[in-house]
Design goal:
Elements: H1 4-13, E1 21-22, H2 23-29, H3 36-45, E2 56-57, H4 70-79
Parallel strand pairs: 1-2
Helix pairs in contact: 2-3
Amino acid sequence: MISFKEKVLRVVKKIPKGQVISYKMVAQRAGRPRAWRAVGSVLNKNRDLKIPCHRVIRSDGKLGGYRQGTKKKICLLKKERYLI
């Protein structure tokens, strides 16, 4: 059986460059629709740079947190042409 953490990381890994999805949507796709805070916790603990955690934002469109800091998240999203 695949853990919730693994499901979250698989969902996030599939987010295309230049696109974002919400923590809530990640939780839904991982099979636990009300676990958006748990998604944030999983992503905050992730150290695998192949998982694009910076592509996950809040449902209200705000950026939310990022393990390497909000400035780094903004920089990465600008580089991917999500933010201008």
